[in-house]
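Working notes for the structural subgroup meeting. M.R. asked for a predicted model of this chain before we commit to crystallization trials. I am recording the input and output together here so anyone reviewing the notebook later can reproduce the run.

Input as submitted:
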Amino acid sequence: MIEIKDLAKSFGELRVLEQVDLTINDGESVVVLGRSGSGKSVLLKHIIGLLTPDRGSIKVDGDEVTSMSYSQLADLRRRFGMVFQMAALFDSMTVQENVGLALREHTKKKDDEIREVVRAKLELVGLPGIEEKKPADLSGGMRKRVGLARAIAMDPRYILYDEPTAGLDPVTYDQISKLIRSLQQQLKVTAIVVTHDMNNAFEVGDRLCLLHQGRIHFDGTPDEIRATDDPVVQQFIQGESTGPIAEAVERLEKQTRPSGRA
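Returned structure, recorded in token form:
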């Protein structure tokens, strides 16, 4: 379980997170929604201790993240796999080397054992036999799958996804969404998916949480978020340019605009 209480974070005068309260239960797939710049990725970084909050508590399996030492944070991060927005593969490495990187760095497995783990993980994401290819030889969808294979190489309890379908064509987009859901169910991991894409959210989420003005504005099932008459939620899921979200963005821009400028 991940428990986040009263989480706040500012960067200078910019308040990104103000009072985030969120519980993520074991085995759930939770989607964190929000417009670009709303703090979704900042929230992920707090969960794995890459950022320190100004205020609040983050507990992973009962352990308080905000008070951990460097070595404790390193142990914590081994419970997590991370899928980055643009896959973040190392161009100079083969697929084998990319997927097996954490195993080489953080385990005592021998080379043949690592090769076997990499082979199995690539099969899980539907890419058998590509171990010797370089990222430049792969399509965008294949790179995403390799990034996912790398994320599950250490058999994590949690997988974090940062905009996992960004930049994909509609067919590949649908394949990646289905793969995220399938792996969450097969591996019985807890998935936290950050996105602003409603189609992806409905495909992969047990719960959908809308981050707005630094707080979790709405938390519910896909059916509940479709049915709500909350104007903020409706503007977001309908993708409308006018409404309370746009008004909030305009107020924020006025607050952060340098004085003397129109």
